[in-house]
């Protein structure tokens, strides 16, 4: 089939040359027949709808970097400023995910341990250490604590936190652009991190007029102020709010507003500011919840687990599972933790963002030469940080698609349109093709990069980066409509 196709192309080129030297109807007919093949017609339609999108972006006074092509064999179908590096927002995570899989391996597991010397039923100094496990949540911490119970531990005097696996630069690059943002997406990163370095509040209604029940965790890290009230649904209610400020031992959280009497429990999370000792408070409070005595007030300090006996140990799910929350849910914390883990693995030094980013840069450059102006600063794509071209993302997507060692795990970590992740509520009206992609959204930035798959057809890669758009929502709708029109081109309804 390849030889036949090759012969068609060669024949077409000779026909065009003949037309230039000796114009004839036969020569022009040969050239025209080539341009009327189904593939050529589909390519022409794809370029036409691409031009419409490009014109709309120009009318919005924005910028676009766009690439659409066949995955295998490689072929460009449509492109607009494909080599122009723009802010890709969370599409940056595609580079982080791919490099993590290539560097650490799909089966890589993070670890977390409790260490110390046990004497009968007591541990004088209990340490916690990790190599950057982003999945260390309350359930995982409880599992570690239960191992102490099984050893017969009943008392702990002090808790130390060993952060030596990473450096002490807890705020990822560009995160300083919004210092007053307390949402979880801006959480700091540290080698030992609990619950994504966030505090959680469970808020449930009480009797009408009374304060709602508020349960924080870890409670010893929180100075809680409650002015909120349980409201009658018929009354005019003010939204429930959680204001954050620093306190001597951690955070002061002020809960205000009203919670309807018949509403269900509400979970609210807020990032912490300084994570060096935070996990130690979670250890102490978890031990207390299981009946192990811990000195009050807690003695939480920085320390080391080096050469200390391991009393409890946990391995995270494998990297291919961890990437689900990164690719499908676009978790910034996991992305930045992975960057440092990559740096630590390659350099054998404490994990540093700069080292991890350099590994990502070098890997991306091996896949496809970096365009002039490419900029990689952090691994999550948050804020005004990175500059990458659509052509670069398309090259990475194509490489991973054809990589049997890590490609399947990369592909399955992407959101599936109308099914899961950040695409669960997008592309609901189409069913002729499957869209697997990574979304990206910031103020004035919308991005989408991934694959279009349809039964019986070769998959297509695409990357569209829109910058300078006035509002993300209209731009997102326009981008979704563009992808749907590509589906109409690549997988028309008449196709089986």
Mean pLDDT, nearest integer? 90
Number of domains: 2
Supply the CATH superfamily name of the largest domain.
DD-peptidase/beta-lactamase superfamily
Q: What is Rg?
A: 27 Å
What can be said about the biggest beta sheet? 7 strands, mixed
* Molecular shape: globular
What do you see in this structure?
With 496 residues, this protein is of the alpha+beta class. It has two domains: 234 residues, 3-Layer(aba) Sandwich (Beta-lactamase), CATH 3.40.710; 206 residues, 3-Layer(bba) Sandwich (D-tyrosyl-trna(Tyr) Deacylase, Chain: A), CATH 3.50.80.20. The chain has twelve helices and 21 strands. The strands form five sheets. Strands 3, 4, 5, 6, 15, 16 and 17 form a seven-stranded mixed sheet that branches. Strands 2-1-21-20-19-18 form a six-stranded antiparallel sheet, with helices on both faces. A three-stranded antiparallel sheet has the order 8-7-14, with no helix packed on it. The longest helix is centred in the N-terminal third of the chain and has 22 residues. The protein is globular.
């Amino acid at each position: 089939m390849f030889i036949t196709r090759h012969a068609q192309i060669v024949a077409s080129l000779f026909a065009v040359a003949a037309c230039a030297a000796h114009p004839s109807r036969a020569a022009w007919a040969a050239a025209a027949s080539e341009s009327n093949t189904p593939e050529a017609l589909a390519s022409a339609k794809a370029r036409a709808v691409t031009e419409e999108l490009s014109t709309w972006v120009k009318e919005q006074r924005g910028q676009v970097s766009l690439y659409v092509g066949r995955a295998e064999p490689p072929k460009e179908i449509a492109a607009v400023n494909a080599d122009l590096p723009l802010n890709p927002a969370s599409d940056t995570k595609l580079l982080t995910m791919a490099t993590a899989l290539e560097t650490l391996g799909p089966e890589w597991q993070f670890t977390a341990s409790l260490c110390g010397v046990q004497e009968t039923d007591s541990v004088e100094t209990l340490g916690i250490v990790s190599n950057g496990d982003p999945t260390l949540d309350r359930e995982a911490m409880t599992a570690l604590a239960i191992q102490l119970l099984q050893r017969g531990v009943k008392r702990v005097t002090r808790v130390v936190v060993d952060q030596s696996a990473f450096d002490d630069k807890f705020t990822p690059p560009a995160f300083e652009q919004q210092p007053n943002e307390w949402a979880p997406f801006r959480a700091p990163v540290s080698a030992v991190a609990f619950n994504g370095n966030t505090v959680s509040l469970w808020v449930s209604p009480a009797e009408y007029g009374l304060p709602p029940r508020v349960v924080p965790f870890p409670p010893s890290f929180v100075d809680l102020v409650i002015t909120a009230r349980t409201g009658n649904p018929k009354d005019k209610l003010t939204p429930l709010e959680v204001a954050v400020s620093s306190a001597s031992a951690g955070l002061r959280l002020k809960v205000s507003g009203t919670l309807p009497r018949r509403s269900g429990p509400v979970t609210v999370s807020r990032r912490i500011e300084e994570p060096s000792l935070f996990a130690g408070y979670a250890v102490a409070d978890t031990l207390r919840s299981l009946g192990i005595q811990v000195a009050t007030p807690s003695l939480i300090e920085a320390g080391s687990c080096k050469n200390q006996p391991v009393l409890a140990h946990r391995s995270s799910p494998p990297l291919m599972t961890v990437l689900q929350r990164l690719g499908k849910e676009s978790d910034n914390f996991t992305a930045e933790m992975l960057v440092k883990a990559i740096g630590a693995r390659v350099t054998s030094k404490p994990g540093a963002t700069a080292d991890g980013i350099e590994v990502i840069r070098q890997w991306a450059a091996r896949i496809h030469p970096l365009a002039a102006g490419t900029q990689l600063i952090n691994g999550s794509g948050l804020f005004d940080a990175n500059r990458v071209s659509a052509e670069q993302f398309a090259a990475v997507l194509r490489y991973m698609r054809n990589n049997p060692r890590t490609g399947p795990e990369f592909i399955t970590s992407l959101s599936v349109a109308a099914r899961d992740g950040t695409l669960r509520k997008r592309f609901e009206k189409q069913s002729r093709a499957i869209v697997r992609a990574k979304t990206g959204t910031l103020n004035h930035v919308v991005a989408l990069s991934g694959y279009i798959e349809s039964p019986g057809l070769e998959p297509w890669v695409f990357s569209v980066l829109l910058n300078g758009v006035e509002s993300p929502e209209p731009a997102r709708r326009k981008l979704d409509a563009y992808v749907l029109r590509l589906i109409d081109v690549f997988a028309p309804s008449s196709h089986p």
